[in-house]
TrEMBL record:
Pfam families: TP_methylase (PF00590). GO terms for biological process: methylation; rRNA processing. Residues 25-197 form the Tetrapyrrole methylase domain. Keywords: Cytoplasm, Methyltransferase, rRNA processing, S-adenosyl-L-methionine, Transferase. This is 16S rRNA (Cytidine1402-2'-O)-methyltransferase. GO terms for molecular function: methyltransferase activity. The keyword S-adenosyl-L-methionine applies.
Length: 232
């Protein structure tokens, strides 16, 4: 079986926010697909502190991974070994490369078990006040300044034409620059939700304002995980 295991969005989140079955599945296997070994070990310790870290057998599964890179793990699964799939944050396979392994499991008739947990994308959307029936997630915006401007204005036009909420992210150390670009390139009355430090009991920041109001006071979000939503 492949267990799709959620990770916390903030390590300050109480363990009581998560389903007890997460710990049960972590205790059930020592084998995991992970995007980052250091983060994965912290997540395992968070949910199951009594599990011996030395017993963990971690296989890297990131955006560069191909099936050939994890052939050893796949052979183990074909022989009946259970694996867990851990995201860096939130649910696996959303803004996360884990779908490669899930796809392979379906092709090999290996059972996939998803476990409930937080998704920063969905939590930002439901907290925004925008259309939750119809929305699109775009991942990361282009790095090139000109391409980024085009994409920002394109997303704004989609909101105006369709009413669909438009969700996107940025690498945390570029958040402040993205906010500058959004307040510069978007129309004053366009509405933007910024959701940062989601699920952090002390530092969570979620606000929806018009661009003209964001221009008056921009949040400081350097190196802070955040999600951005445009909508009506």
């Amino acid at each position: 079986m492949l267990f799709l295991l959620p990770a916390y969005l903030s390590e300050n989140t109480s363990i009581t926010h998560f389903a007890p079955v997460i710990k049960e599945y972590i205790m059930q296997t020592d084998y995991f697909f992970v995007e980052n070994e250091k983060t994965a070990r912290k997540v395992v310790k968070f949910f199951a502190p009594e599990k011996k870290q030395a017993d963990l057998k971690l296989f890297l599964l990131d955006k560069y991974t191909e099936n050939a890179d994890i052939k050893e793990a796949q052979q183990l699964m074909l022989k009946g070994q259970d694996f867990g799939l851990l995201s860096e944050a939130g649910l696996p396979c959303i803004a996360d490369p884990g779908n490669l392994m899930v796809k392979w499991c379906h092709e090999k008739n290996i059972r996939v078990i998803p476990i409930s947990g937080p998704s920063s994308i969905i939590l930002a959307l439901i907290s925004s006040g925008f259309n939750g029936q119809e929305f699109t997630f775009h991942g990361y915006l282009p790095i090139d300044k000109g391409e980024k401007k085009k994409q920002i204005q394109h997303l704004e036009s989609l909101v105006q034409k369709t009413g669909y909420s438009q969700i996107f992210m940025e690498t945390p150390y570029r958040n402040n620059q993205l906010i500058e670009d959004l307040t510069k390139f978007l129309s004053p009355n366009t509405k933007l939700c910024i959701a940062a430090n989601i699920n952090d009991p002390e530092h969570e920041f979620i606000q929806t304002k018009t661009i003209k109001d964001w221009q008056k006071q921009k949040p400081e979000l350097h190196k802070v995980p955040a999600v951005f939503v445009l909508g009506k």
